[in-house]
Amino acid sequence: MKTFSLNKGLAALWYPFIFGFYLFCTPTLARNTLRFSALQQQTQVTGIVTDGTLPLAGVSISVKAQKNSTVTDFDGKFTITASPADILIFNYIGFKTIEISVARRSVINVQMQEDATSLQEVKINAGYYSVKESQRTGSISKISSKDIEKQPVTNVLATMQGRMAGVNITQNTGVAGGAFDIQIRGQNSLRTDGNRPLYIIDGVPYSSDAVGSDLTGVVLPGPTSPLNSINPSDIDSIEVLKDADATAIYGSRGANGVVLITTKKGKEGKTRFTANVSGGLGKVTRLMDLMNTQQYLQMRREAFTNDGIPYGPTDYDVNGTWDQNRYTNWQKVFIGGTSEINDVQASLTGGASGTQFLVSGNFHKETTVFPGDYDYKKGNLLANLNHESQNKKFNINFSMGYTVQKNYQPGVDVTQQAILLAPNAPALYTAEGNLNWENSTWNNPLGNLEGKYKSTSNDLFVNGLLSYAILPNLIAKTSFGFTDTRFDDSRTQPSTMYDPAAEIGSESSFIDVNNTSRKSWIIEPQLSWSKKIGKGKTEILVGATYQQQNSDQLVQEAIGFSSNSLIYNLSSAFSVFNDTHSQSIYKYQAFFGRANFSWNERYILNLTGRRDGSSRFGPGKQFANFGAIGSAWLFSNEPFVKNNLDFLSFGKLRISYGTTGNDQIGDYQFLDTYGSSGNNYGGVIGLQPTRLFNPNFGWEINKKLELALETGFFKDRIFITAGWYSNRSSNQLVGIPLPSSTGFNSIQSNLDATVQNKGIELTLRTVNFQRQSFNWSSSFNLTIARNKLLSFPNLKESTYKNQFVIGEPLNIKKVYHYTGINPQTGIYQFEDYNADGTITTVEDKQSIRDLNPKYFGGFQNTITYQNWQFDFLFQFVNQLNYNGAYRTGLPGSMRNQPTAVIDHWQNPGDNATYQKYSTGLNSQASDAFNKYYQSDAVITDASYVRLKNLSLSYTIPEQWLKGVKCRLVFQGQNLLTITSFKGADPESRFSMNLPPLKVFTTGLQLTF
Question: Does the pLDDT value for residue 680 go beyond 80?
Answer without folding.
Answer: no
